[in-house]
Amino acid sequence: MPLMGEQFRGPLMTTYVIAEASDGYRVLFALAELDSGFMNSEILVADTVDGVPIDETRGPFRLVAPHDKRPARWVRMLKSFTLRRTELNPHEKHL
Q1: Which among 2, 12, 16, 33 has a CA at the least distance from the CA of 81?
Q2: Strand 44-46 and strand 62-64: pairing?
Q3: pLDDT tens, position by position, 9-61
C-alpha cells in the first residue's frame, strides 16, 4: 500500500527525515516536502556533477535542494538518512 500521494495523511504528517554528512552536519526535511503530491520541488542525491564523479571533499554523495532559496540544506559528504516521527504530547492543545 503506498504511503505517499493521496494516502499520505494523519500520523505520517508528523514524520521527518534527517540527512547527515560524515562530518556531522545534519539537516531536516518534513516527509511531506519529499512527496510530489504536496510540493512541486525536488531533492536530489548526486554522485556526479556534469558527468564527473564528486571529489572526496564533497562526496561521494551530495544532497541538493535546488528550490531552497539558500543552500543551507545542501549536504556534502552525505552518509545517511534517518526517518523519525514526532511524539505528540497527549496534553497539548491542537490548533
Answers
A1: 16
A2: antiparallel
A3: 677 788 899 999 999 999 999 988 888 777 777 899 999 999 999 998 888 99
- Is the dihedral angle over the CA atoms 24, 33, 39, 78 positive or is it negative? positive
Q: What is the DSSP letter of 24?
A: S
Residue 61 near residue 54, CB atoms below 8 Å: yes
User: pTM for the whole thing?
Assistant: 0.79
Comparing CA positions, the residue from 32, 27, 35, 16 lying closest to residue 78 is 27
Distance of alpha carbon 33 from alpha carbon 50, whole angstroms:
26
Q: Does 3 score more than 70 pLDDT? A: no
Check if the beta carbon of residue 34 is closer than 8 Å to that of residue 43.
Answer: yes
Length of the chain: 95
